[in-house]
Amino acid sequence: MEGTAGPYDASVRIVMKRLGATLNDPPDWSCCGSTPAHAVDHAFAAALAARNLSIVEKMSCATLTTPCPSCLSAFKKAQRRMAKNKVFAGEVNSLLDAPYNCTVTAKSTLQVIYEDIGLDEVASAVTTEIPDLKVAPYYGCILNRPPEVAGFDDPENPVSMDRVLEAVGVKVVDFAFKVECCGAAFGVPKKETVTYLTAKVLEMALDAGANCIAVACPLCQQNLDLRQAQVNAATGGTFNIPVLYFSQIMGLAYGYSPEELGIDKCIVSADSLIRSRKPMDAPVEGQEAPKKKAAQGE
């Protein structure tokens, strides 16, 4: 979020502030272990996540939110296993400077917006229309999985991102590949596999009638956006579809500029789509703006 996914961080902070949510960064936070740590040692992996949860606990915050599905999965798995297994919890806490008492709930930023803030608030903040945008909502393979850990939305046919984007007035297409894997972090060791998986997601988005893909994961964004040229070179394809974070699309609907939201940093340009933006109730080209009713007596 402070590196290659900087635009995601910027757009999430802008949108959350616009919706009236206060974000408090945990002081001295550290890596959650992401996806590789559990392959080394389960207790060590849980400790990496639990250290951050312990910091949030000390802040007297009941909820930890993260835009990243890998971080979310690490936090939720540590929480679940420590709460269920006192022996494991003791092993994890022995690795920490301060014990974690399992009082924090980890949620994705999408979940906070969808469930805690609500669609009415999401819709009420809209100031701008983007009529040319047709979005395929891509959740990726771990945001809602496994269901017993994620505890949010449907693991096979999630709808939260669809509903949020519809609430800001964006056209959402019926996308069959919304939870298929794009290859995640295997772009270097398994390049051919990632190329194939990414190509299938891009192809299905186009087949669904989309001209843009919305994501909620930095790795998904990287594979689908950054690797399109690699996919075209390997497959002979001509993919050129913008891949935006769902929070960037929300920010556009709230009237923020592409530069403020980091959209100008995308590899595949979205300029042709977002050029159609216009303020709500703006006149259609070639038509006059609706006249205001005259006050009584005028």
Brief overview:
The chain has 298 residues and is an alpha/beta fold. Helix content is 43%, strand content 9%.
Give the SSE map.
Elements: H1 6-18, H2 42-58, E1 63-66, H3 69-84, H4 86-93, E2 105-108, H5 109-117, H6 119-124, E3 128-129, E4 134-138, H7 147-150, H8 160-167, E5 171-172, H9 191-207, E6 212-215, H10 218-226, H11 228-235, E7 243-245, H12 246-253, H13 271-274, E8 278-279
Parallel strand pairs: 1-2, 4-5, 4-6, 6-7
Antiparallel strand pairs: 3-8
3D structure, described in words:
- By secondary structure, the protein is α/β, with parallel strands linked by helices.
- It is 43% helix and 9% strand.
- The protein has 13 helices and 8 strands.
- It has helices spanning 6-18, 42-58, 69-84, 86-93, 109-117, 119-124, 147-150, 160-167, 191-207, 218-226, 228-235, 246-253, 271-274; strands at residues 63-66, 105-108, 128-129, 134-138, 171-172, 212-215, 243-245, 278-279.
- Strands 5-4-6-7 form a 4-stranded parallel β-sheet, sandwiched between helices.
- Helix 1 packs across helix 12 and helix 2 crosses helix 3 (69-84).
- The longest helix has 17 residues, at 42-58.
- It is globular, with a radius of gyration of 21 Å.
